[in-house]
């Protein structure tokens, strides 16, 4: 989670919402990314999506069933669906997102009967730091 939090900080410095994501297999980082929507003019360039894409490329497969996604904010519905389609084993998230989350809040993608793969979900690891990054980022813009 430390690396994901550092990536979130880098995103904030670049003017992006501070979210970082890392995909690991065992003790190895396979891929990582920070939010890049504004810089790439791509509304789908959430940290999770970019990290999942990079992991697939690095491993040469679309199935990441032995990988873990570490992310600093609860994934939105789009990112949760992508994690399911990628067959990630687990999602470890820092801060929960009561407004835009799609795992514990909102759409609750993994609880839907149409969801064919449900990764294990752990939350709260690094939550205080991730929440502080988000508060500071949005306070500076108000």
Q: Helical residue percent?
A: 25-40%
Task: Name the strands of the widest sheet in spatial order.
Answer: 2-1-3-4-5
Count the E strands. Answer: 5
The major beta sheet can be summarized as: 5 strands, mixed
Low-confidence stretches: none
Structural class by SSE content = alpha/beta
Please tell me the overall pLDDT. 97
Between the first and last Cα atoms, what is the distance in angstroms? 28 Å
Name the assembly state: single chain
Q: Bin the strand percentage.
A: 15-25%
Order of helices and strands: HEEHHEHEEH
Shape: globular
Number of helices: 5
Description:
The protein has 142 residues and is of the alpha/beta class. Helix content is 37%, strand content 20%. A five-stranded mixed beta sheet has the order 2-1-3-4-5. Strand 3, helix 4 (77-85) and strand 4 (90-95) form a beta-alpha-beta unit. Helix 1 packs parallel to helix 5. The radius of gyration is 14 Å and the shape is globular. The termini are far apart.
Secondary structure topology:
Blueprint (H helix, E strand, L loop, with lengths): L1 H12 L6 E6 L2 E7 L2 H4 L6 H13 L8 E6 L3 H9 L4 E6 L24 E4 L3 H14 L2
Parallel strand pairs: 3-4, 4-5
Antiparallel strand pairs: 1-2, 1-3
Helix pairs in contact: 1-5
Summary tags:
142 residues; globular; 5 strands
Compact overview of the structure:
With 142 residues, the protein is an alpha/beta fold. It has five helices and five strands. Helices cover 37% and strands 20% of the residues.
